[in-house]
Amino acid sequence: SPDTRAGLSYHSKVVHHLTGTSTFTGPLAVDEALEGPKNPSGRNKLNIALPPYTALSFYHRLQSPFAVMASVIYTQWNTIQNLVLQDVAGVSPTLDRTASLVVTIPQFYHNTWNISVGGDYFATDKITLRSGIGYDQTPVSNENRNVQMPDNDRVVIALGGHYQASKAIGLDVGYMHLFIQKAHINPPAQVTGFEVANTSGSVKAGADVFSAQVTWDIA
Q: SS3 letters for the chain?
């Protein structure tokens, strides 16, 4: 209807084929007892599929200077189970030579929900004020949270506004704050050839996001 609309969208997964370089340095890299090149550097490879997601959104203009809206997003993060890095420079598990290693980092992501609600207040014909709140689940499991991605569930609040300067030009500003829950990090030991890393700690974080945009309608 003129005052109500809803939308449903699906975004398929996107596969990235990433490459880079890896260099092994330090005392072991120059150890004369090791066979092979002392400072190997190769072309690393990583294939990763960013997940598909489905989004449902709703908007309704009330019989007053207010409008309400909501969205629900379901993301299939379980496409990411392990990160497999190929051709990583390091020391072989037997500590007798330098080598190009295959490193597997367990992730075991799970599917998540993102839920948000918000509202518009039409102060004048030219000025609209906005606010909203949302809850975003993390795909990271407590058992496999690592220092590369110490993520956790978060609550988000947002404020903003729109000013229609003319028929063709509109200005938008926004502010968003993320309250991220404290995350404990104690994953399985990370094995990289000869090296074994054990991690135990915690992370507490938050974020502030400021945005602005200018819309110019040339139609």
A: CCCEEEEEEEECCEEEEEEEEEECCCHHHHCCCCECCCCCEEEEEEEEEECCEEEEEEEEECCCCEEEEEEEEEECHHHCCEEEEEEEEEECCCCCEEEEEEEEEECCCCCEEEEEEEEEEECCCCEEEEEEEEEECCCCCHHHCECCECCCCEEEEEEEEEEECCCCEEEEEEEEEEEEEEEEECCCCEEECCEEECCCEEEEEEEEEEEEEEEECCC
